Amino acid sequence: MSEKNTLGWGITTDKGVEIWDDNPLFLSSSVSLKEKCLLIFYPKKFVLYLTIKKYYRKWKKDNTGKVFRVLDVGCGTGSAVIDLKRYLGENTFVVGIDVVSLQIELAQKKAKDLDVELRTYDGLHIPYLENYFDVVYSSDVLGHVEHVPEWLNEINRVLKDDGLLAMFSESKLGRHAFVRKYLLSHGLNTDPHKQFHISLYSKDELKKMFADRDFIIERMYSTVWAKMMVHPDELAPALQSQKKFPLLRLVNRFFLYIKKRFHPLSSAFLELYSLIEMYMIGKWVESQGYIIIAKKGKKEFSP
To answer: Per residue in 64-111, pLDDT tens?
Structure first.
């Protein structure tokens, strides 16, 4: 996603607040075929948006004339709120909530011509009635939440029975994140947002936590196992500040050079690769971060 005319992605303000400012992918109410095709270069959005769209089409058959309600928890500056409103169409009500008032102010400016609702909340108590939303969407938020079990209980409370939860969650380093686990075991944390990631869990911990809050996980994909190749820019600040790990620093510089030298083609190719990787091996590998597709309902947990 282009950062043109944005504050940036995951930056820290002079007041110590982390800002996630991004532009929407869909630029007009009439989403073009080209814009839909561009989704393949945004792997998380591709899976989450298409899952919500598929659920909406099925819901619409049995709910003629009703309004389809979507909640974006931790909406940042509103890019997904805008995208989902434009992607789903007029018969939808999309709400975005966030703890950072600056982000909500920016989101309101971006979405001023759209019939959406954007508001702050305290990070835990969602200010809506029980069983109000058909879908809850959340991306890159769970790892920043202080009281995750209570937060998931709130999401469950406002979600309708059999409602859809479409989420990307940060996580602990999984057993297949070989390079990053090796570096961490030698005292180097390569997570560029480690000071803000206060709630990271393993895959099994996440699965049990969701099951305990009456969510049935239908699909769970690990994202970007080949981090060294796909996102060398994220590893570089920590890795290149070291005198140790000469071979890994050399490999990191090589991939970073290739990505920058041939940008934007290289970036597009690598994001497409990560989408293919997700569908090919994402159900089995344990890296750092998971796309979670779940329904509100009860099912006995089995690890």
So the answer is: 889 999 999 999 999 999 999 999 988 999 999 999 999 999 999 999
Residue 26 CA to residue 42 CA, distance in Å, equals 12
| 237 close to 192: Cβ distance less than 8 angstroms | yes
Tell me how far apart the alpha carbons of residues 250 and 261 are, in angstroms, rounded to a whole number.
Answer: 16
Looking at domain 9-175+194-224+277-296, what is its CATH homologous superfamily?
Answer: Vaccinia Virus protein VP39 (3.40.50.150)
- Per residue in 172-219, pLDDT tens? 999 999 999 999 999 999 999 898 999 999 999 999 999 999 999 999
Mean pLDDT of 107-124: 95
Upper half-sphere CA count for residue 136 (Cβ side, 13 Å): 32
Helix (H, G, I), strand (E, B) or coil at 221: strand
The pTM assigned to this predicted structure is: 0.93
The gap from C-alpha 114 to its chain's centroid, in whole angstroms, comes to: 22
Q: 222 and 286 in contact (C-beta within 8 Å)?
A: yes
- Please report, for residues 23, 119, 228, 301, the alpha-carbon distance to residue 4 in angstroms, rounded to integers and kept in the order given: 8, 24, 25, 45
Task: Report the candidate in 30, 94, 26 with the shortest Cα–Cα distance to residue 56.
Answer: 94
Task: Quote the CA–CA distance of 293 and 302 in Å, as a whole number.
Answer: 17
Contact present, 228 and 235 (Cβ < 8 Å): yes
Taking residue 77's Cβ as centre, other Cβ atoms within 10 Å add up to: 29
DSSP string for 224-282: -S-HHHH-HHHHHHHHTT-SS-HHHHHHHHHHHHHHHHTTTHHHHHHHHHHHHHHHHHT
SS3 of residue 48 by DSSP: helix
